[in-house]
Amino acid sequence: MHFSPRTLGWIAAAVTVLxxxxxxxxxxxxxxxxxxxxxxxxxxxxGASCVVLPWAWWLMRSARRSGASxxxxxxxxxxxxxxxxxxxxxxxxxxxxxxxxxxxxAPASHASxxxxxxxxxxxxxxxxxxxxxxxxxxxxxxxxxxxxxDVLVGGASLFKAFDGGEIWKGDLLFIAAALSWSSYIILVxxxxxxxxxxxxxxxxxxxxxxxxVFVLAxxxxxxxxxxxxxxxxxxxxxxxxxxxxxxxxxGMAFTHMIRYFGPVRSTMITAVVxxxxxxxAVVFLxxxxxxxxLLGLTMVTCGxxxxxxxxxxxxxxxxxxxxxx
Length: 325
Description:
This protein is mainly α. The protein has helices at 5-30, 37-59, 61-65, 81-103, 108-116, 119-130, 137-160, 167-191, 195-219, 232-261, 263-269, 272-285, 291-306, 312-315. The radius of gyration is 20 Å and the shape is globular. 51% of the residues are buried.
């Protein structure tokens, strides 16, 4: 069955929205279980590596047989070393590191607004700075709404910091995670990264850097872990959902969506994620919906909707650069 580029783009968008919504609710729920943030990050990387590493080795087998120089990092990443490091650091390690730790401080509803909801803000600003894309007047108004929504949610947490609260720490980590992922979006657009190869590069970089450091830190008692005491079902679930689902499936879907819709419009399409995940947090996690959170969510959602404007730069599909493998 052959699908048009438009159809594939919308399928990728639907998969991205579904997994992103589940990611926020499930990861916040995981904070009440045994595994620590760094444990979940390890499960994410190992789960993704079990799928991606054999796939990457198989993908480049013909080039290796011919004696050609392939990729980087022991021939497992199909991208050059510089791009692999940049993509792996921004879209892999930093994003996951900030987000997982954030969920242990702040509720899922805050992540809906400050992490997912602020993606259009950071992506638009980075696209203007790096790609020289112009910001239309309507989109600027939308971005202002997003900023006001973020202030309504995060500002209240900052004021509570004087009373000894720690939610503000999670809020800042969510914003840092959004900035990291937005930087990866711009990197994908700038280099025209293929969805499969981009995901492979992220996973390979995380595997060869984080896993050895984690093991060494645990052996030296420099990093706490609950891997030895947690139920194997919990570890397996995190490896499957966080690794295979959030990294492999969602990563390729989102990267494909960027290539079709462009970086800014892709984040605008995810306008339903803040509302869906906030609703999921109320229904499944029994999180309260305070007035400032509801108003901030409304402002962010309106800002994203206002930013959905088709322009030539948004609809232009960036071709994949050749010679990366």
